[in-house]
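This entry is retained here.
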Amino acid sequence: MVASAGAGSFYSIEQHLRASYTRGPIAEQLTGSRDTSDGFIPDRNYSSNALASETWLTLKPGTTDILLAASDRPYGANLFYGPYDSQERTKGWFASIQQQLGQRTAASFGYRRHSDLFVLFADQPQIYENNHITTSYEAALRRADTLSPNTTLSYGLEANGDSIHSNSLGQHARNQGAGYANLNLRAPSNRYLARFSLSIGARDEVLSSNGNVFSPSIAAAYTLTHTTRLRTSGGHGFRLPTYVDLYYADPTTIGNPNLKPESSWSYEAGIDWTPNNGRLTLTTTAFRLQQKDTIDYSKLALATPTLTFAEPYQAVNIQNLNITGAETTLRLRLTTTQNLQFSYTAAHAASPPANLISEYAYNYAAQNAIFAWNGTLPGILPSAIGHQINARTQINIVQRTQHTAYPLWDVALSRNTGHIRPYLRLLNLSNTGYQEIPQVPLQGRTILAGTEFNWTTSRH
């Protein structure tokens, strides 16, 4: 069993628990968490509570996996939906079962219920209130067959559906089903062909209100030398608008019942290089995303010198949004206990259409650099103590479109042995003021300290 408790800035308190048990064919894991804070600005307090139980029964014809989970999360939503002291509370529970039917087949079913109570003005709830209850289910039957030593075929059927009952969005429901197949090929033993692998997939989704969507995919890799690997992939994807996208309305946001599903084609190609000693890994990837009917919240034809944030955003389809970019990651093992990582991503899209003020789609990270180190602390502290302390530091520099770059610096320290393991986390040490969503400020410098109590025993 592992339990931890800590506290820190803004009257934050965190409490976590994980307990597991195994006896014969039965295994059980229970997890629970409670995180609370008064908030770094007024009406940004929160309380996040979650509990989950997962049970495995290893019996004929195969393992049964039963998952039960519940959550309750009230929080202050100040500025989330406009310049209002809003409050929101979400509750949910989830149950699922997966049954192995022999070595190659599995069946699963899951059900989820979620409620969302939103008050626009915390001190005057009678002015505007939303109360939604959504339910959803998902079922699947999957199988994998080995057709030859170098060929595997995975295929299956899926069905899912969701519904909403809301005082403001109304009552709606939809269902969809899908069939898919994926063929993995590895060339037969040959000096050159054995270096090649290929995966070809296809998925057909049948929608209750929008026909069907066919999504193919392909991925290939080739080991050029014993240190260099080439890879490429491409595929189609789509996303249905949510009920909020379609029917929601408040003083700052308006849904759109005429929204079309969002679809995309994505492509990438890359190279992985690992020298003989294995201490260094360099990965580079170029990518392109071509979206059609992108779902965004925008102010269309409202761009005037007197435009204010209080004027509403409306859900719209953006006809074409193409993003091209590249990312590279360098990992270096300095010693047996210390690792260094540097990664950089750059992305670019054309300017938004005329008379469109985008809330999400064009508010992406044009550049993102991460420098991270993790390891133990011998040399800094006496060896006997230093090897007991895990340390990690990360500096993340982000530059969003039409904004200047900002840094985020995190540090974490924790003891890695013994029954009592103190920890310390320092988040946003630079105390950077930043916004990932326009007009929604995020938390500044935060310090959290606590202790983990570990009663885990090894079984051989």
